[in-house]
Amino acid sequence: MTDQTIEMSIPSHPRFLQLIRAVMGKVSAILEIPRDQAGRITLAVDEACSNIIKYAYLNAPSGKLDFLIHLETNRLEITITDYGKACDINKMKPRDISDIKPGGLGTYIISQVMDTVEYQCGHNGRNRIRMVAALDTPKEEQSLSKP
To answer: In this structure, what DSSP letter does residue 53 have?
Structure first.
């Protein structure tokens, strides 16, 4: 597949998270990403969006999230931009997984699923998260490529 980019925006309301999950599912199908990896990537994107809605927009549904989904043969890059409250990079560290309590695992999940995660906080009135995943080869291709 040649490099291609999908651009879209959704309102900062949790009910629109199902739309981005559906888009990620379709992107995964187009790229033939194995189901388990596709599910993990979708979960990471969903966690990033949920954090943006909660912390940047303080649950206000009047904001928006802009997406750039860059498709390559062996790589998927997702950039999400918001225009809410500036994030604080010092508060975005994943908490210790052994600290058992509800919530607060979004950044941990994102860091475990994605190969690269970069944050820009409050730059020109916007926040940005860039996530990159190296794509697994579908099982059918793996079996065909073995001698």
So the answer is: I
